[in-house]
Predict the 3D structure of the following.
Amino acid sequence: EDQVTQSPEALRLQEGESSSLNCSYTVSGLRGLFWYRQDPGKGPEFLFTLYSAGEEKEKERLKATLTKKESFLHITAPKPEDSATYLCAVQETGANNLFFGTGTRLTVIP
Amino acid sequence: DAMVIQNPRYQVTQFGKPVTLSCSQTLNHNVMYWYQQKSSQAPKLLFHYYDKDFNNEADTPDNFQSRRPNTSFCFLDIRSPGLGDAAMYLCATSREWDQPQHFGDGTRLSIL
């Protein structure tokens, strides 16, 4: 069973059109949930870590939230430079590795 | 001011010819990781080191090996690459297990 599922697989937005990306997870205990941005041909770039339900983190146009079963990455008034694949990864309590989702490929059209 | 550096960025090898990918870090992090990422797929963990303690994921093929001679460097050796090993190989580091991982820009491996 997949531990991390991201939706949608792909999302096209007009510049300025706010939206949310979803990451749902199934782990027995959550040590941390991580959001990354990945540009084509590059390695993932760290964005946020969330550790407990109710926690929120913000950076520029991005805001990440966490519940006991899922996390959302809210993008407010996106710009074309926000176009990238956004990856979610979870770390289980007592585990040393991350389980990544397959990502949401975001395209922001001018 | 790159902090996790992977060389080369692109590597082409022949079917069955050994290849080594390298990773260096300037962050002085304890943990180093190697991931394999195929097109439109999630990164898949191959190995990780805490200092010199090596951890091999259960489903990592025997064809893949790794070395970490010191804190700063880590190598991925593929002994006999097959066509299915063509992928992006990502190196990452973290200060501790539960800290964010910082990735290099990867080495894209092609097999002829």
Q: What stands out?
A: Chain A touches chain B through 22 residues (CB under 8 Å). The two ends of chain A are 38 Å apart (CA to CA). The longest strand of chain A covers residues 30-38.
